[in-house]
Every structure is written in structure tokens, then in C-alpha cells.
Amino acid sequence: MLGLVKLIVGLLILSALWVLLYRFVNPPITATMMADVMAGRGAEREWMGLDEIDRDMVRAAVGGEDSKYCAHSGFDWDAITDAARRNASGGRIRGGSTISQQTAKNVFLWQGGGYVRKGMEAWFTFLIEQLWGKRRIMEVYLNVAETGIGTYGVNAGSHRYFGHDASAMTRTEAARMAAVLPLPKGRDAIAPRGFTRRYGNSIAGRIGTVARDGLDNCVYAGTAAPRDRTPPPSKGPVTLPGSDVETSTPPPPPPREVIDQLPAASETLPEAPPEEPVGDELAPAEQPSQAEPAAEPEQPDNGL
Questions:
Q1: DSSP of 152-170, one letter per residue?
Q2: φ, ψ (nearest 5 deg) of residue 239
Q3: How far, in whole angstroms, is CA 211 from its chain's centroid?
């Protein structure tokens, strides 16, 4: 019995040291990346520091994935309770994971459900909230989250879909990238259709709400917030290693002053209707439209 206690204590200490190391060292690879490499899909990633990532991308992640990011300590208990209630009624399983929980899972664990993994996820979520803080969590999340088949991080995703890096994205581009995050292998940010398009339009509107209400302020606390940047022209098609996918070259985006003229958002981020089947979301790649009609705000549930 004493030996088992020592083993558990040792594992807890090692996990804390592992998390502390990644506060200063960028995670070199994750279990999900290794799975893609072993499957022959490759794992393209181009790390970009948070100071260089366009703030609209941060706001899109908060608006689309976790509107209470700066208010909770890693767990959104209201969302978890709501997800448990809906799951108990049957139908599609939905989750209430925060950005912190998704980061813990993506960096230290594996994809898929199960009580064992969820328990470990809760432990690692607690550790990164205590040892990293909100700024580092967001930076790591935006660099390890899957943004396409064999593509990781918003910088590699921006190259894949828009032909330029993530340092200067339009609101439309940031919103479409955030719309891909819940189902990266089944969605495409280039000329999306169905739910993905409507969800992206909704997130584009929420970016203004996040900015107005300061819902991303914890990410930039104590630092000089990045200035708005003018998106660079497209660099042309990008072909990813281990993939036959070649992106199309989008037309130059409209000026930011045009993009920023969005309708006033409501005081709170409204809920979206239930997510639709993936089959209605995919369409052949074509030139993306930079100016899209506003859609009613939607917000799907975060995946497990």
C-alpha cells in the first residue's frame, strides 16, 4: 500500500514538473501529431508567439470556444452542467470543455473520451491554470490546436487556407479559422458551406463583443496589446507535406476599416442551434469571399 502511495505521489510530482517545463519550452510534439504522422498525413506546424498572432484570432477563439475564458479558473461549471443534462436526454454527445481543458488534452494527453482521460485532463487543467496562467495557455492552444488534416496551430492553418501567416488576419479569416477548430478534419475554412459558414459568420460578429467587453483582457494583462495590422497579400498556393491538398489563392482582403464595420453585438454571446451533420459542411475549394452577409449569432458546444 505504501508503495502505491509513493508511486502516485511520484507521478503527480513528475506531471507538475512536465507542466512547469512547458511554461518555458514550447511543446515539441503531441500525441495527436504523432498519430497523424504515423497515419501518413504529416504534421505541419509553424510556431508563432502570442505577441505576433493577430488579436482578432485570439478574440475569435474566445468568442467561438470559451466566452468565459478570463472569468473561470479552468472549468466552466455552468457549461459542464448544461452539457451533462443534455447528454442525459440522449442524442449527439456534447461537451463543455474550456480552452484550458482543450489545451491540457491536446498537449499532455490523447483524443477520445473515457473517464480515465477526463480525470487526467482535469488534473493537467488545474496545473496549467496554476503554473502557466491565461496568456501562456492561449499561446500554446493557438499553436497546438488542430486546424486541418495534418495541420496544427493557427499560423500553419493561416498559410494553408489564406496564403499568409497569422500575424495579420481579417475578422472573416479569424472567424473561419475558429469555426474549423471543433472539427478540423471535417471542416474547411476556404469557401465553407452549411453550418461552418453560418458559425463563422456568427463568430465574426462575436469578435466585436469580445473586444467591446474586454473578454480577452486577461491574455494581454501587463503587456502592450498588439496593434491592428493590415493583412498582407496572399503568397500563393501552399502545399503541405504528406498531403495532396493545395490551397487556392484568395483575392486581397478589404481594408480593416471596412471589416470592422460590423453590426453592434448583443450584451452576451447567444447560443447557437444544434450542430448539423458534417456532410452538409464540406464543399470544393474555391476563392473565399472576404465580405459575407451577417448571420444570426450561433454558438455550438465545445467538443470533448
A1: ESHHHHHHHHHSS-TTS--
A2: -105, 130
A3: 17
Q: Which of 42, 240, 24, 37 is nearest to 140 (CA)?
A: 24
| Interatomic CA distance for residues 242 and 238, integer angstroms | 12
The span from the CA of 146 to the CA of 157, in Å, is 8
Amino acid present at 15: S
- pTM of this prediction? 0.74
Q: Is residue 287 part of a domain?
A: no
Q: Which amino acid is at 297?
A: P
Query: How many domains does one find in the chain?
Result: 1
Cell 464595420 sits on residue: 261
Question: Is residue 113 in a domain?
Answer: yes
Which residues of the chain are under the pLDDT cut of 50? 234-268, 270-271, 273-274, 276-304
Q: Which residues pair with 209 in a beta bridge?
A: none
Residue 205 inside a domain? The answer is yes
Alpha-carbon Rg for the chain, nearest whole angstrom, is 19
| Residue numbers of the domain that contains 148 | 2-280
φ, ψ dihedrals at 151, nearest 5°:
-125, 130
